[in-house]
Amino acid sequence: MSTLPACPKCQSVYTYEDGALLMCPECGHEWSAIAVDASDEKQIRDSAGNVLQDGDTVTVIKDLKVKGSSSVVKIGTKVKNIRLVEGDHDIDCKIDGFGAMSLKSEFVRKVQE
Residue limits of the Protein YjdM C-terminal domain (predicted)? Predict the structure, then answer.
């Protein structure tokens, strides 16, 4: 498995090194590997590998049991205006019918707008 970063332009995972540059065979984008290492902060990604940002809308990809309750957040539940935080549960949000909740990014998928 490659440890090279995905293309910053098209998010392709098929990047390769060409000397001091990283190349994307899908869109032709070239960038410096040094610049990526210096500015590459920890990015939070969803289950499909899309980078999440504050304010994004996501959908839940599997039924999630709510701790301390007998209720379940159903698959396909849309969650608007997420907030990214540090920790194991890296998304803070409000879900209609449940209230404030923390989710793991591995159980959501970003809604493409």
Answer: 44-111
Q: Nearest to residue 98, comparing CAs of 78, 73, 64?
A: 73
Q: Contact 72/64 with Cβ under 8 angstroms?
A: yes
Measured distance CA(12)–CA(25) in Å, rounded = 9
pLDDT tens, residue by residue, 65-86: 988 888 999 999 999 999 999 8
The model carries a pTM of 0.61
